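Repro:
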Amino acid sequence: MSIAEMVHSVLDGPLTLGLRAYDGSSTGPPDSPRALHLRTPRAAAYLATAPGQLGLVRAYVAGDLDVDGVHPGDPYDLLVDLSAVRFRRPTAAAAVEAARTLGVKGLAPPPPPPQEALPRWRRAAEGLRHSMPRDAGAVSRHYDVSNRFYELVLGPSMTYTCACYPDAAATLEDAQDNKYRLALDKLGLRAGDRLLDIGCGWGGMVRAAARRGIHTLGVTLSGAQAAWAQQALAEEGLAGLAEVRHSDYRAVRESGFDAVSSIGLTEHVGVRGYPAYFAWIGDRLRPGGLLLNHSITRPHNRRQETGPFIDRYVFPDGELTGSGRIIAQAQDAGLEVLHEENLREHYALTLAQWCRNLVEHWDECVAEVGEGTARVWGLYMAGSRLGFERNEIQLHQVLAQRPHPDGATRLPLRPWWRP
């Protein structure tokens, strides 16, 4: 049995792109603009021992699987093709023939690429899920890759969260500036006010607030992010107004803030941690203080762990749910929800631009972090773009307030910000 025949034995329907294998066999539409190239026997072993998403990812990240007609910095078109492919279990006879073809060595799982984290069930030694030590390790794994790599991919704003596009023709930098403008306007902050930004990343929100004269404290679990942000604050002459700490947000003891912003942190908290998360935020706000919670969500309100690729290569321990559950948990913690909106399509535009940046700076990115890691990020960002476009994931901003004791909001009757 050839490798191409093995692939056909697990397909449920036609192959929508080409395939070439190291044994010389091929299949799929001969005129397809894209084709999978299984370069080595290890590629076949990855696919055979981890059928489905994980095997494909391992072979691709390790470089044993290439794709003709697709740049690894933006494999979006490949993922569109693969989304139309359906698989089935092989018959007993086909499985026996495949085993003969691969041999004993080909049926032994090869070591995964070094970019792969342990499966969830083997992470107990790192602490309980969403404990401070385990969260610190997960965040470091993702964000401490290389500040230079992120500069190349994210652009000058160094903002790794969804932008807000005033129109589809806006540049990424304009859209990120507009996102921070929108967040600060929703929070109604003025010069002299105090803002706590949890999960602050490289300090984009911190710097935007400090430029308005707002006293801002940002916290991040990434040491590399904190160092970069502190340097950026110093270079802009903002160090007297703002601080970024290398810290878990739960270690912040200050309170009485006029506002709390959480932009891209909730995804790391864990759904079961929402009650404590929102209660903690409420305790940090003064009466009448506002929270802006900006996070990736599902289009349903069930708790759902991320798939094997995201969990092992991108965000270990990640889980998502819907905006309804986030709103309910904020309300149960005593916060009054004032407004919410979905920026799903904006995130698809953001991710498309990040992929373009990765393609443009591919050689430098590979020199900085290695080709395997660069492939992971291209795959992750292109796949996420497709998920946002197809409404498999969303991005919601929720605005809430810690109520005054008398129940008054002391806010305008209608939204006070420009969309």
